[in-house]
Amino acid sequence: MRSNVADIVGHQVAAFVNHRLSLSLSGPSVELQTIATNASEPLTKSALELGKYKITVNAYAPGIVNTPMVEALVDIAEADMEMYNVAISRLSTRAIEAESQPEEITSIVSYLASKEAHFITGQCITVDGGAVLS
């Protein structure tokens, strides 16, 4: 990472925006909570190290997004009733009952990489319609 840092130090806007699975952010399993905790440590450490160079480090964690890949997974899940029920349960417990579109994810990533987000660092923004609340 140090060679990348040297390349971007001094630029007007410098940001790292990482992807995280939102599944690791929620769930009844202690194992999932441990994964989420351990995954946030490198993000926080990087944010602390790179902050002195005015480089922000953040992540986004999308929920289920309406894409061709998700549509294919739904077709597969319909063949496995248990998997299908889990997926339907997760979708039905979101605070906002609407399908997430790819543009909603790209707008968060664009914002985190912009100069307007210069004071946001070490954060993971979950974009899942409130599914992690349930």
From TrEMBL:
Signal peptide: none annotated. The keyword Cell cycle does not apply. InterPro entries: NAD(P)-bd_dom_sf, SDR_fam. One of its GO terms (molecular function) is oxidoreductase activity. It comes from the Eukaryota. Gene3D superfamilies: NAD(P)-binding Rossmann-like Domain. The keyword Oxidoreductase applies. Keywords: Oxidoreductase. Belongs to the short-chain dehydrogenases/reductases (SDR) family. PANTHER family: DEHYDROGENASES, SHORT CHAIN, ESTRADIOL 17-BETA-DEHYDROGENASE 8-RELATED. This is Uncharacterized protein.
